[in-house]
Amino acid sequence: MSGHGGIQNRFELEGIELPSAWASETMRTIAAHESRRSFTAEPLGEQALTAILTAARSAPTSSNLQAYSIVVVRDVERKNRLAELVGDQRCVREAPVMLVFCADIFRLRAVCERQGQPFAADTLEMFLLASVDAALCMQNALTAAESVGLAGVPIGSVRNEPDTVAAELALPRGVFAVVGLALGSPRDSGRGVKPRLPVEATVHRERYSAERLDEALEAYDRATIARGIYRGRHVPAGGDPELDADDEDRYGWCEHTARRCSNPEHLGAASLRRHLREQVRRRGFSLD
């Protein structure tokens, strides 16, 4: 499926030639990722869902602890309630399925109790481990779905209201919703692969280096401005409500990102998570 300007994947976008031995469909699928937020009413069959879940469960997991759980949400009313909780997102309503990937130590506690052992792994490391396990499962599920022509978008705002989401999904203490994934058949062909930061900014050889950071940021600004990624999406600078909507030739990723990071309110859902530490602890995880 061709994207914006006929560019199908990041290899094409960045002019990277793949050796024939590496030009697999898996490689192309991963490099063609584009978050899609509009879905048709076509249902997702049980066989397709089983395949996606199997791929998700095949993700790496630290020490084989498998400290995650996946909640499958198909019920329309429940999906609508979740859509409200995650910022009134239409994509969650439209998608035939929403998967919620959770960090889960409830099961590990149960295993320790079953075996007559104390659970002593209530640590910050365990929360990170379980969250990474959940995120890896989500990525596998998304890649699997995209490999067969489906589309999806991760939903980080399941963390906006952890207690309410937990109540909606009947999550026991020790289970925390890390990220959702709306899945379905895409309504349109999408806007195409979005430019990413140059490799010089994000990939480091042997040791971290910021030697070419300014050059990389300048190049990325030019790319995002040319593509019009932030056209009409300006945020205020320094609390000034006036948006410089006509200054499109200078408003790129750097300005947009600096404005968002300078004020939590501009991070949207992130401003709702100011009490996330306390909410994570209420869900049964230690951050010590």
UniProtKB/TrEMBL annotation:
Keywords: Flavoprotein, FMN, Oxidoreductase. InterPro entries: Flavin_OxRdtase_Frp, Nitroreductase, Nitroreductase-like. Gene3D superfamilies: NADH Oxidase. Pfam families: Nitroreductase. Residues 30-184 form the Nitroreductase domain. SUPFAM superfamilies: FMN-dependent nitroreductase-like (SSF55469). Belongs to the flavin oxidoreductase frp family. This is NADPH-dependent oxidoreductase.
